[in-house]
């Protein structure tokens, strides 16, 4: 299984338009962070997780063009607003694309992209179908997908376990029952916004505490804010098995 890191930044990305802070003016390529998203593939299946505002750039820069399923963690704009650009994938694949999310999230997608579901569509709109998922596990190709209930401020959202790999973004709290589901993962990607408290995102310390509990072989931090500072400054604070996630990184897991 290969995981392509499409983006590792918070909703504004890094750099932020007009910002002159140390992270935003940094020359370190690791401090260029598009909005958080990953692509997971095996020989049998290609899964896109979230479709944010940088989707087009992410697919061009990583030379991707085909998808079997799109999974959504939640309906915030930095995770869904690139859906219109899925029409490029329709064009290449010449088939409808299935979108999988919880009921509330599907409702929001339908509202924001109503023209894609109109009875009479104008030509070239994204050709997508909506499929409801819950916290029940399911299988896509040769990947066992286990949805993880994640609390994001007050919003219940989803993270996903794909075989031995787990992707958790926008978490501020995880119940013990969900941590139990994550025991044994080899690689974990989890969000850490910044060092100071935030109502809907883990701080660096909260993310590290959560990693301790889950105990993966390796963990990467994502959904990073410019308020964390430049990567070289905060990576030194990480224990040896925890690394900053980096856009365009590719993580390979044995099947
Ligand atoms: Zn987000
Ligand atoms: Zn969010």
Structural write-up:
Strand 2 and strand 3 (46-49) form a beta hairpin. The radius of gyration is 17 Å and the shape is globular. The chain starts with a strand and ends with a strand. The strands form two sheets. A seven-stranded mixed β-sheet has the order 6-5-4-3-2-1-14. Strands 7-8-9-10-11-12-13 form a seven-stranded mixed β-sheet. The longest helix has 11 residues, at 204-214. It is an alpha/beta fold. It has helices at 55-61, 77-80, 87-93, 103-112, 176-182, 204-214, 231-234, and strands spanning 2-7, 37-41, 46-49, 69-71, 97-101, 128-132, 138-140, 143-152, 155-162, 165-168, 187-191, 218-222, 242-244, 250-252. The model has no long low-confidence stretch (mean pLDDT 97). The structure holds zinc ion (ZN) (2 copies). One zinc ion is lined by residues 11, 36, 76, 78-79, 170, 223. Residues 11, 36, 76, 78-79, 170, 223 line the site of one zinc ion (ZN).
